[in-house]
Specification:
Length: 495
């Protein structure tokens, strides 16, 4: 728990969902009420569906209005049409709720002056009553520890990533994509139009939230520039903040204004704000995902640009991968002659290369011997390891090599042991398609196994190299700000 004034919003004692469909089989039924049921919210608080046309929703009592629900109700989710909202606002004030999330759209984002006035009026009344507003036109809250969810299928085990998104669809996409890579969230907020609570409020909260170690944000427009800058500086000073800005182009800016009513503003100014605050800028959704993984795994500890590329299965892969590493601003340095000579004692010349990239994967204990030799070379700062999982090639400590075992876990464990031996980050690379299947590792299982062990894993060398270069450039650009990861917190600790 936090002493921040916004903290109660994330821990409601009871939630009312206003506008639950009358037909329990309706497609819209698989919305907020269903997601909250699936998340197990009734185990921790009251969950009250509201619809004056029916008495029951499933086995639960359905209430005709908010005022008919038991006390207390801390949080309200509105999915009623915009014309009904003024009456709901009055009920929220009379009921004494703490916060209301308007999934309801059709306000200022439409460009209609009358609807914009309605939004301002209702938000003013709510704020005067001490009620905070999330939205309108958004998906609201996902808080695993409080069993709050705005989509089906969200995991309920808590993590340390705080996600802030002006777009509800992007929030859901980011959660699903990072979940498949092992990431778990402390809190997720989709805030839409930002009529009351905006990016600056949630960044200020995230800076103080003890459950959140990494902050990610998708922002289309900034309503209060100075407040945003101050909150971003506060947050980025103490935690890594990764920001993806929508509306960078004229077309994107027009789309953003139609989406949430946001004026995207000057991208040059936004970039300057992020640099001065010490935040990480992502240019694409893929970059945001990869940077979140980097900031919450061993990839954050990278200290230099020398990369050892090991495995991958094929000389062509090694050549193209070396090109990708160079393009990212990293290096694939040659190994010292003594390291090459040592590896040639047990790696044949034919069909292999041991001078970085390493196109070899010897049998048994020689795998770890080779990886330690490569990683200990002074020219190497980090290792990109693409695992090969033929059972005969793993050191199974005397176990039956034909026995079934978790190949993804085995590969991730090897990375942890290697990192501990060399004291440098080991980054997992898994090729997709046919080559991945030949290597015997399921991509999703591999990503999750790595993340659970604190190892960064990426679906390509290109994305891994680009991410490492971004981390290095970002750390170098934080002159005068705290080193959030600290060189003393070196790799090798498996976290």
């Amino acid at each position: 728990m936090s002493s921040h004034p916004l903290d109660p919003i994330f821990h409601p004692r009871a939630v009312a969902v206003v506008g639950v469909p009358s037909n329990p089989d309706a497609a819209r039924m698989r919305g907020f009420y269903h997601s909250m049921l699936e998340a197990g919210y009734p185990e921790v608080g009251g969950l009250y569906p509201i619809n004056p046309k029916v008495d029951k929703i499933g086995d639960a009592t359905c209430y005709p209005s908010l005022l008919d629900t038991p006390d207390p109700v801390d949080h309200v989710i509105s999915q009623v049409p915009a014309p009904v909202v003024p009456a709901l606002v009055d009920q929220c004030i009379e009921k004494g709720v703490r916060s209301i999330h308007f999934f309801t759209a059709g306000f200022s984002e439409t460009g209609d002056a009358n609807m914009a006035d309605m939004e301002r009026t209702m938000v003013g009344k709510l704020k005067d009553a001490g009620i905070r507003v999330i939205g309108p036109n958004c998906m609201g809250l996902y808080v695993p520890s409080s069993r709050l969810a705005f989509m089906d299928g969200f995991p309920m085990d808590s993590g340390s990533v705080f996600l802030l998104s002006q777009s509800g669809a992007n929030a859901g996409e980011i959660v699903h994509d990072l979940t498949t890579r092992g990431v778990r969230f402390s809190k997720v907020v989709s805030y839409g139009n930002g009529s009351d609570l905006r990016a600056n409020h949630f960044l200020d909260y995230a800076a103080e939230d003890p459950e959140s170690n990494v902050v990610a944000a998708y922002v289309e427009g900034v309503q209060d520039g100075p407040a945003f800058f101050e909150a971003l500086k506060k947050c980025a000073r103490v935690k890594p903040v990764v920001i993806l800005k929508g509306g960078r182009t004229s077309s994107g800016s027009h789309a953003a204004h139609s989406h949430t009513g946001s004026l995207a503003g000057s991208i040059e100014v936004f970039d300057a704000v992020c640099r001065q605050a010490g935040a990480l800028r992502a240019e694409t959704m893929e970059e945001l995902l990869d940077l979140v993984v980097a900031c919450s795994t061993n990839t954050r500890y990278v200290e230099g640009r020398g990369v050892a590329l090991v495995g991958g299965g094929g000389g062509g892969f090694a050549v193209l991968s070396s090109d990708a590493i160079d393009r990212a601003g990293l290096e694939v340095p040659k190994l010292p002659p003594e390291a090459v000579a040592e590896m040639r004692e047990y790696i044949p010349v034919a069909g292999s290369s041991v001078n970085n990239p390493i196109d070899a994967f010897p049998d048994g204990a020689d795998v770890e011997r080779m990886l330690t030799t490569v990683g200990n070379a002074s020219v190497i700062d980090t290792m990109f390891l693409s695992p090969q999982t033929d059972r005969s090639r793993w050191n199974r400590s005397g176990e039956d090599p034909a026995a079934d075992f978790d190949m993804a876990a085995e590969a991730a464990d090897l990375m942890v042991r290697t990192e501990s031996a060399i004291g440098k980050p080991v980054v997992g690379i898994l090729r997709s398609g046919r080559m991945a299947r030949m290597m015997g590792v399921d991509p999703k299982s591999f990503m999750v196994a790595c993340y659970e062990r604190g190892v960064g894993a990426y679906p390509s060398v290109t994305r891994a190299a680009h991410t490492v270069a971004q981390i290095l450039d970002w750390r170098a650009g934080r002159e005068g700000l705290p080193d959030l990861f600290g060189s003393e917190a070196n790799a090798g600790d498996g976290s």
